[in-house]
Amino acid sequence: METTLSDTRPTFSRLTEGKARQSWRAAVPVVLVLIAFVALVAYLASSLSSYSQKASLAERDSQQYRDQLTAMSKQVDNLQKEVALDRSPGRTTVVLQAPEPAGKKRAAAPQQGQAWAAVTWGEQPDGKTWMRANGYGMGQGLDGGKSYHLWMQPQTGDPIDLGVLDVDPNGSGFAMKSDLPGIDQGKSVMLTTDLPDSKQPGDVVAQADLPKLQPAVKPAPKAPADNNQARPGNDAQQMHQSR
After folding, report:
1. Which of 188, 179, 189, 187 is nearest to 127 (CA)?
2. Most buried residue, 4, 78, 172, 192, by most Cβ within 10 Å?
């Protein structure tokens, strides 16, 4: 009886097909890991950009808050300074009256219907001075767009504009100016009617001479020089002597 033998050896195509399937199966986890890594990097980059923008916005808001706090502190300091000046009696007070024609004696009190002012003059802690003026009997609606100004004439130099007196319906006004020349450098003070942005006094409505006063505020003494400050060569010389 004849027996037939069958060839059970795997063919080349089956061998290569099996190896290809195994290589793809082995590569799938690597590809998934790479995709996950790229996604993670993209997420971290997006998060970093978002955090950077948030940090920039927070820094900008913080800077704005610091600027607002600085401005508020300056406003509080100015208000405290103004309150202190309002409560201060000053060094002297002069009454401004209309200048009398030559040969006539000035009246002891302002005449009815004439503009006049009372100006208080005081010293600041830094040696400069301030003036506070209250005007009365002033008319509203001056011709030519003029307004009432207060001027200080120092001993030397040009007159200093102390500001505009805003006249109320009763004919009264107020003005105040600080950081003026020292108490011993004033000559006179004038109430005038001027155009806006005038650099010199206009028509003098009332005036008064300032008294000669001596400063009550002494300038701060200069810090003494530090004689114990180390000098080049002293340390070496002392070490040499100690030996």
Report:
1. 179
2. 192
- Residue 196 tokens read as 């806006």
pLDDT in tens, 120-129: 999 988 899 9
- 186 with 149, same domain: the answer is yes
Rounded Cα–Cα distance for residues 59 and 64 (Å): 9
Would you mind telling me the total number of residues written for the chain in this entry? 243
Map tokens 């600080």 to a residue: 178
**Could you tell me which residues come within 8 angstroms of residue 114 by beta carbon, excluding any fewer than 6 positions away?**
97, 98, 137, 206
H or E segment to which residue 14 belongs: helix 12-87
**162 within 8 A of 173, measured Cβ to Cβ:** no
Same domain, 196 and 120: yes
Q: What percent of the chain has pLDDT over 90?
A: 36
Give dist(CA 168, CA 173) in Å, integer.
Answer: 6
Cross-strand bridge partners of residue 129: 123, 180
